[in-house]
Amino acid sequence: MRAIGVSIASVFPGYCSPHDAELFKYVECEKSPLDTTAALLLSMRAVAYEVFAKETQLNGINAKSKFMDQGLPFHLQSLVQNVLHSDRIGVEQGMADIRALAGRYQAAYDAPGSSGFHAFGIRFDRILPFAAAGAFFAEVDFQGRVLRRVDSRDAISQIALNIATLGQSTCVTFGWFGESDCAAAKLVDSFNALDDYQKAEASLVLALEHLENFFCSPSWWDELPEGNRSRFDQSIAGGMTRGARDPNALVMRGDVDFGAKVVETLDSRI
Questions:
Q1: Domain count, the chain
Q2: pLDDT in tens, 85-97
Q3: Which of 175, 227, 232, 240 is the most buried (most CB within 10 A)?
Q4: In sequence order, what are the residues at sequence separation of 6 or more whose Cβ sits closer than 8 angstroms to the Cβ of residue 119?
Q5: Containing domain of residue 246, as a range?
Q6: Closest CA to 51 of 131, 134, 161
Q7: Has residue 28 been placed in a domain?
Q8: DSSP 205-232
């Protein structure tokens, strides 16, 4: 975690300001509703961020390849370039996946109701001290079950997560495409099965585990016990490893109690 100014803290850098204001006015109003349209727009924003992040990552790799091996012996130059080449291939594959997903969201936006888009969301009775947005592969659930391994050859099941203020309270929305037995749908089922009092903490844990696009109030973070801050830092780092994710990564520990009540639920599957 690092401190940044409020003026540059945004979980939505994927669109330029004019397009962002025009496209997403529906979710920026004082009385923005929690409905399928809002969930679709927020999911589009989250996926746009991932496209932006992948492009930035690829540009960084290409820049490094021009100078990182300068002045090194040949065997080290080869090592550096091989590592960068592997990273580039991985990012390019990820970019192809996320651009394809962005295309599905664009199609859903252009033709609502005929795209296979699913949404689930909850509204709390207050504004929580954190926000996040992004898309990820659903791998494990909140009960410690493995949904899908990253190295599996099964169909990829991506889910968009937003934790944002809609109107005067925090809403958590999930958006995905797929059948009722896909990994994304199972993750949502697992979240919904939690007691309502656990869902604010579960939202925090999910965002820390899967998304780097996360912001929180410095005062809230600083007031956390050192042990909690350490565990949350480990959650962030845990998502950066190349191995399989810990099946218990999302299991609730009761580290924080926001006292937040769920006052509204959206489920487009019903």
A1: 1
A2: 999 999 999 899 9
A3: 175
A4: 36, 39, 40, 43, 173, 174, 175, 266, 267, 268
A5: 118-268
A6: 134
A7: no
A8: HHHHHH-S-EEE-HHHHHHS-HHHHHHH
